[in-house]
Amino acid sequence: MPRIPLTWLADHVALLAGTTAERLAADLVRVGLEEEAIHPAAVTGPLVLGRVLEITPEPQKNGKTIRWCRVDVGQYNEQGPDGPPSRGIVCGANNFEVGDLVVVALPGAVLPGPFSIAARTTYGHVSDGMICSVRELGIGEEHDGILVLDQGARARLGIMDDDAVPGTDALGPLGLGEEVLEINVTPDRGYCFSMRGVAREYGHATGAVFTDRGLPDGGEDSRPAGGGFAVELSDDAPIHDVPGCDRFVAQVVRGVAAAGHSPQWMQRRLTQAGMRPISLAVDVTNYVMLDLGQPLHAYDLATLAEPIVVRRAIAGERLTTLDGTDRALDPEDLLISDGGAGTRAGRVLGIAGVMGGADCEVSASTTELLIEAAHFDPVSIARSARRHRLPSEASRRFERGVDPALQRVAARRVVELLVAFGGPAVTVDAAVTDVDATTPPAQVDLPLDLPARVVGVGYTAQEVTATLTQIGCTVGPSTDGVAPVAVPTWRPDLLAPVDLVEEVARLRGYDAIDSVLPVAPAGRGLTHGQRARRDVARALADAGLVETLSYPFIGTHQLDELAIGPDDPRRDGVRLLNPLADTHPLMRTTLLVTLLDTTRRNVARGTGDVSVFEIGLVTLGAGRTGPGAAAPRLPGGVRPADADLAALDAAVPAQPRRVAGVLCGRREPAGWWGAGRPADHTDALAAALLVARTVGVEVRVTAEADHAPWHPGRTGALRTADGALVGHAGELHPAVVAALDLPARSVAFEVDLDVLLAAAPAEPRLARPVSTFPVAKEDIALVVDAAVPAGELLEAVRVGAASSSAGDIVEEVRLFDVYTGAQVGEGRRSVAFSLRLRAADRTLTAAEALAVRESAVSEAARRCGATLRA
Q1: Is the C-alpha dihedral spanning 705, 710, 715, 718 positive or negative?
Q2: What burial class does residue 515 get, using C-beta atoms within 10 Å of its C-beta: 0-12 exposed, 13-18 middle, 19+ buried?
Q3: Apex CA 795: angle with CA 790 and CA 799, to 5°?
Q4: Of 145, 200, 295, 775, whose CB count within 10 A is highest?
Q5: Half-sphere exposure of 636 (CA within 13 A, CB side)
Q6: pTM for this entry
């Protein structure tokens, strides 16, 4: 985010008296620039100029020699026992002499670190302050000695000889006592990534006089260009039919000490703006970029071969950028290359608008520079920056839109600074290159009553015209209430009438817009699927599970932990081109992966008893038309053809909605009532069946032999009446539990909610009336082979009881006991069921209850070979 030093902003606009960073933030927020942070002054407290009066070297026992100094600090002096008024300070540096002007931090000052200065006893003296170095002041990295303010240093800092008086405040000249405002800029306001743009908005907010230093001067910037360094714009594959570069300005500067130091005031401003000073050439281009908003680049002219060619990358090309990274280039990348006249060949110099290459970097021996100021397509720059994960200060500005009329002005400003600070031998070639293929911004036809109609405030035509003129638009005479508006070159975001309406509302004040709540239109309420999802979440929460949310990104190592085999379709996940983390590049294909990760995190933090669930989407690897469907790359700015939209839709992978839950530790807590009960596979099955009942679907449970990550002997598969697989529930495999460090015998379920909704009845279920007649109870114990699943036997009893001649009187069928032993025989077991029977219109007779019992036993015998236990 841009950082705005007030003194720098004052170069462009007349700040109101008494303006502070806090006041500036309040002024800018009125025009839509929000405060991000206020960075306090780097140094607080008394920091003054001092004159060294005496120096007494004192060798120490450790071999070090300290210097006991008496320093004149003007009105801050104290009268010592002998000699003139001064302050005594112990210093270890030896690069200064008596009579030198230095910077002194007095007791009470706080230097960067923070490092508080106080009078302290050291080496047998009371050191009453500190003589400061550049690093200690936070204005550079030099630490070989303290900062001596000789005539040259004072000139760089802008300190006049008359002001070089002991006791004079040093915070101002050093720029250390200034607060810096950091603002948040929305993507459509790219011109505010510069002091020029922020100053313009400050003028809008306060009426302060703004001087636009980014306009051509009508002389130097308007003279014909020609004869300079050759440049070709050769974009034969533009994105969305917009050329990647439509203006390129180049200027040659010779005899410049490019690797030397920039002036102190420039370094100070760069540091305040959050950039590190590097060298004269780099600092000057960065300074002008921050000042005017035009990114620039300086090439070592000795390494270049004419012409420079702006072109798209060729497949297979690579570039080592300034950060030392070797990058594979994409055919969509816009490049700066040289030595490729008339062809696409040539050495790559950099990724246009993003970062330059290492081959033509300014070095310590560079004396001749080629200054580049260009205008690039925002879409092309944004895609390259994201493709290479290479955000830069230049790309942030280009992708938001740079003023296409600014290049000559910015290049001239760079040249002026290089001439001023690059040494006495600097010369500038008379010829300048300006390849200009820009077009004027499109005219917007604005009905002058549109702002009033859209915003609801009675703006007059005169107010609308005055406001648009204030932001730089040219408003022509209206015809039938519609005026042609030519938008300024620095506002590429103003494309339609509604954009101009927004500007009118913004500058006239959002506080002038009344708060009127709209009348909510009548709707049809929630859809069946939305109601079902809410009901499921509510039912599981009522059952004691806690709903969680997790990111849908996973890695292959998580699938390994769940023992999902290499041929399992759940391995076929959609891979992200730009994942949040390289360890999680896939979209999840099962909800349990991320839910188990949530469970593991809670267990690791001491929560041993966990019952959680999640409702979310999974992404399957194949598109809707099957594997192999590739999404087409569609152009921007135009409506795609129907066939392209159909192909895009077909390539979108299936994303079913799932419900999953994990239970571990104790399901019922221990207490005075007993030892509690650990969660087991029946709890997972009960939760999955609860989901199905809530949706209104009857499912049957069958044993599942092998389906990771569940235990092969304690897992059930849930299916609808027509055999569609709904999900799985049961105990997790011991190897999975160990890999995830979960409590032993942890259980889980995962259900496809979309399958359940597809099988659910279309009509809403009606509540069953509560009968006022008494309940009749019947218990039956059935003996079956031990291999017969209890779920199948329960289903047989339920179906048999419901089909009895007594009618629909079965209220509940519940399994309450399983017994194995000698009484039922080897390989057999007894399973007991409780039947609750009730009629809505009568008290049941013993014969009716007996008929239900016999029908249930008969169906269990037919399906499962069950016999009634004697």
Answers
A1: negative
A2: exposed
A3: 150
A4: 295
A5: 9
A6: 0.63
pLDDT at 137: 85
776-868 to CATH, choices 1.20.1250.20, 3.40.50.1110, 3.40.50.720, 3.30.70.380: 3.30.70.380
Distances (CA, A) of 100 to 69, 151, 840: 12, 10, 107
**pLDDT (tens digit, 9 = 90+) per residue, 513-527?**
888 787 878 877 888
Pairing of strands 308-312, 326-328: unpaired
Write the CB contacts of 240 (distance below 8 Å, at least 6 apart in sequence). 379, 635, 636, 637, 638
**CB count in 10 Å sphere of residue 204:** 21
Interaxial angle between packed helices 195-206 and 21-29, expressed in degrees from 0 to 180 and rounded to the nearest 10:
80
Lowest average pLDDT, out of 85-94, 259-268, 731-740, 848-857, goes to 259-268
Q: Specify the DSSP class assigned to residue 177.
A: S
* Domain edges within the chain: 3-33+185-206, 47-174, 231-436, 443-511, 528-633+640-759, 776-868
CA distance 188 to 503: 12
For 218, 486, 613, the CA distances from 444, given in Å and listed in that order, are: 27, 7, 53
Number of helices followed by number of strands (H, E) in the chain? 23, 41
pLDDT at 217: 65
Model pLDDT, residue 143: 62
Q: What is the pLDDT of residues 625-680, one digit of tens each?
A: 455 567 788 877 788 888 888 888 888 889 999 999 999 999 998 888 888 899 99
Architecture of domain 231-436: 3-Layer(bba) Sandwich (3.50)
The token duo for 633 is 């790359």
C-alpha distances out from residue 440 to 178, 374, 581, 841, Å: 40, 16, 43, 85
The fold adopted by the segment(s) 528-633+640-759 is: BirA Bifunctional Protein; domain 2 (3.30.930)
CATH level 2 (architecture), domain 443-511? 2-Layer Sandwich (3.30)
3-state percent breakdown (helix, strand, coil) of the chain, nearest 5? 30, 25, 45
pLDDT surpasses 50 at 594: yes
Two tokens, residue 106: 């007095």
